[in-house]
Known about the structure:
The complex is a heterodimer of chains A (404) and B (472).
Chain A: H1 2-19, E1 42-46, H2 48-51, H3 60-63, H4 67-75, E2 94-96, E3 101-102, H5 149-155, H6 160-166, E4 171-175, H7 178-187, H8 196-212, E5 216-220, E6 235-237, H9 238-246, E7 255-257, E8 270-272, H10 273-284, E9 289-291, H11 301-325, E10 328-330, H12 333-339, H13 377-395
Chain B: H1 2-13, H2 31-35, H3 50-53, E1 64-81, E2 87-89, E3 95-105, E4 110-125, E5 138-155, E6 158-178, E7 206-228, E8 233-240, E9 243-255, E10 266-269, E11 272-274, H4 280-285, E12 302-310, E13 313-321, E14 326-335, H5 337-340, E15 343-348, E16 355-358, E17 364-374, E18 379-388, E19 406-418, E20 421-437, E21 455-471
Antiparallel strand pairs in B: 1-2, 1-3, 1-21, 3-4, 4-5, 5-6, 6-7, 7-8, 7-9, 8-13, 9-12, 10-11, 12-15, 13-14, 14-17, 15-16, 17-18, 18-19, 19-20, 20-21
Amino acid sequence: MTHARVLLAAGVSLALAAACHQDELFSPRVPPYAGGAMFQRYVSMGNSFTMGIQSGGINDSTQRVAYPVLVAGAMSGDPFYYPSLTIPGCPPPYTNIFTGARVGTGSTGTTCLFRSPSIPPYLSNVAVSGAWAIDLSTNGPIPGTHSNALTQLVLGGRTQLQAMMAARPTFVSVWIGDNDLVQAAFANDTTLLTDTTTFKAQYRQVLDSIQAVGAQALLIGVGEGTLPTTIPPFFSRGSTYYLLFISGAFAPAPFTVLGNCAPPRGDTVGVAFPYGLGLIGTAKTGTPTTLDCTAPQTVQPASFRKYARTQVAYNAIIQTEATARGWAYLSLNAMFDSLQTVPPAGSQIAPFPNANAACSGSPFGLAFSCDGFHMSTATHRLIAKKIVQAINAKYGSAIPAVVP
Amino acid sequence: MRRYALSALWLSCGLPALLTAQGFGIYEQGTCSMGRAGTGVAAPCADGSAMFFNPAGLAGLKGGHATIGVTLLNVDGGFTGDLARQTTDLDDPLLAIPQAYVSYAATPKLGVGVGLFAPYGLETRWPLSFDGRFAGYKNILRSVYIQPTVAYQVTPWLALGGGLDIVLGKVELNQRLDLADAPVPTSLGVPAGTVFGQFGIAPGTDFADTHLEATKTTVTAHWGGLIKVNDKLSIGGRYLMHAKFDYSGNATFTQVPTNLIVPADIPVAPGLTIPAGTPVDLFLSLPAPNGLNLFNGVLVPQTVSTTITNPEQVVFGLAYQLEKGWTVFGDYQFTRWGKRFYVVNINFANPLLNRVLYERYQNTNGFRVAAEWVKDAKWTLRGGYLYHQGAAPDETVTPLLPEGNRNEFTGGLTVKLASNLTGDFAFQYIKQNDRRGRTREALFNQVPTTGLNTGVYNFHAELFGLSLSYAF
C-alpha cells in the first residue's frame, strides 16, 4: 500500500508539472494600451499616397517613412510589412525633377528593381500607386482598371482586397479616390472623373470586405486640401504666373502671360508645372512663348468647380459610410489648407516651383516631395499624427502619439 | 492468406505516427512492457517482447510463447502561429499497430525466437491548409525490424543474447512547393537567386505537389545481457546497433494551379515583357519563349536518394523484487542521435533541386520507472512513468517531426485467461511540453536558426494496448 501511495503521489506531481500551460512561448502580443487589441494587426489600403511614393518614384527609403508605417509603429501590434522595393527603386525617385536625374546611376523613368529578397509572410501595406477605387477589388487587364507593374510587384496577381483579407487584419485604413478625381485634372478632362454612383458602389464593396473580416476601420477622405482653396503645387494658379510676369520675374526671356490669367479669373485656372515651365524654358532659348489661361492645356475655372464638387461628393459618401458602419473618418483637407498659412508664406506649399532647386531644396515646398503632388516625409509624419488622433477620438483608444 | 496477413502486419508496423520516444524512436513494442513505462531491460516480460527489450531475456524461458497484440494510438497535436494565433491540428487518424513475437526454449538454457518490431519510424500528416505543407504534409519514415534471436544462460546468474536484424526501410515525403520561394530561372535575365516572391507572388502560393518515395533494406544487430545479482535484484543492458539506409527512389511533381493572372505588362528584363493577362500557370508550364516549361524541364519525374541512419540505443536497468509480489523497475536509455541524424542530403537527378535538411539532433537521455504487483496467480497489475528529452534542437522543430521533452504515464494489467492463455491491457498517456518551432525550411539550403520559428507546437496522445499470449 505504501508503494502504491508513493507512486500515486509522484504521478500526480509530475502530471501537474506537465500540465502547466506555456503561454510565454508565444511572441509578444496585445499592444499594451487601452483598446490595444483592436490594433493588433493593421493593414493599409490605398494608392501612391499610402504606398509611399515620393518625388515621382519609390523605393525602400520612401516606403519606410510613409504614414502607415509610422501609424503602425505607434500601434505597436504585429509586424507591419510593406513590399520593400530594392533601391534605387521602381522607378527611382527624382533627385532633380527639372533635369530628370533619379536615384541611382543611369536610372530612368523605366528603371524598375524588384522586391527585396526578404519576402514577408503577409503584407500590411497593400496600397498600390495609381489605384482608383475600382482597383482595390479588381485587377487588370479587365477594362476600366489601372493596374501597372507595381500592381504585380506588390500584389502578385491578387487584388488589394485579397491581400488585405489574407493578412487577417484587426484594423484597416482606406485612403482611396484621389486618382478618381485628380487623374482627370492631370489629363485636363473632366469626363475621366469617376461618377459618384460608381464611386460609391466600388467603395462600398471594399468596406463590405473589411466588415467581413471583422476589422475596424478608418476611412480617409479625398484630397490634399479643399479645392479650389488649396491645390497641390503640381499646379500653379494662372494668377501667380500673371503677377510674376508683370513683376518682371521672367525677363528678359520673351515669355508673355495674357490678361486672362489675371485675378480673379486666373485664381481658378490651373497650370501644370510641366506645361508652364516648358513654355518658360522655350522662351529662355529665345523663342517667344505665351501662357494663355484659356488654352486647353490649362485647367479651367469650370473644371475646377467640378473637381471641387466631386471632392465634396466623394467625401460625403466616405463620411456617410464611416458613420453607418461605426468607423472613424478623417479628412486631411483642413490640415493641408492650414499648411498654406504656415510662415513664411509659400514655404510649405510653393505657389510656383523653384526650378533652380534640386529635390533636396524642396522646389515645391516643404510639405511636398519633388513631384509637386506626393507628400514629403514631414507631411507623412503629420498625417500619421492626425490619424492616430482621429482613431483615438473615435474608438477611445490610447495609441501613443507618433514621435517625433 | 497467410502472406496477406504478414503483408498487413508489415504495413501496419510501418505506421507508427508521431510516437513516443526520442526523435523518431518508438518504444511501445509490447503491451506488458508498455504498462511498465517500457522498463524491463533487467527483467523482460515473458511474452517474447524480450527480443526487443533485452534479447538475453529469451534464455531461461520455459516452452514456447506466441504473442499477438495491437496498440491503438489516438494522437492530438497541432501548431499555433504567433501572428494569427490560429491552431492547425495534426491530421493523423486513429492508428492500430500490431505486434508479434514467437519464442521457444530449445533447451533449458537456450532460447530462440523471431520478433518483428519497429523501433524507429514516424508519420505526420497535416492538412493542406497548414503553412507547414511546404516542409511536408504527409511524412512517413518506416523501419521494420525482423530479428531472429538467440539467447543462452551462460551461468545461473548470467544470460547473454543477440539478434540479427533485417531492417526494411521506407521513407516518403509529400510536400507542396511555394512559388514565392521558387527561384526565377536566370535565363530570364534576372540575377541568380531571384525568387518569384520578388515579383510579388505571395508566400503560400502552391504551384506544385511533390512526392518523394524511396526504400532500402539493411542489416544490423542487437545485443543484450542479464545478470541476476541475487534472488531479488537483477540488472540488464542492451545495445541496438545503428542501421544505415542508403535510400534510393523516385520523385514526381504535379502542377497545382495558382489561378493568378498577370495584371499588367511586366518588364522582366531587357527585351522580355510578360504581357498583361498572362495566366501564371501557363507561364510556368508553357515551353520557351512563352513560358518556363517547368513541368517538362526541371520538375520531371526523376531519381532521388538520401541517407538516413537509425541511431544506436544503449539501455541499462535494474529490477528489484520487494515483498508481497511487488517488483520495481528502473531503466536509463541513451540514444545517439547527435552522431546519426545531423544533416540529411536529399539528392535529385537534377542537382538544382537538391536539398539539405539541417536536423542537428542531439543525443538524448530517457528515464523510466515502474512498479508491478502480482496480486495472485490470475492478476498482475503495473504502472509507470517515463521522461525523455527531445532530440531536435530549438531550430529544428518542424512539421516533419515537432517533438520535444515528454512526460508519460502508463498503467496495465495481465490476466490469466486459461492455463496457457494470458491477456494484457495497457494504457499510456503522453504529454509533450509545448515547444516553439517553425513551419518552413530555410531558403536555398541555408542553416536554419530559431529566428525562423513562428509559433508553438503542442502534442499529446493516448495509447491503448491489447495482446494475447499463448504458451505451448
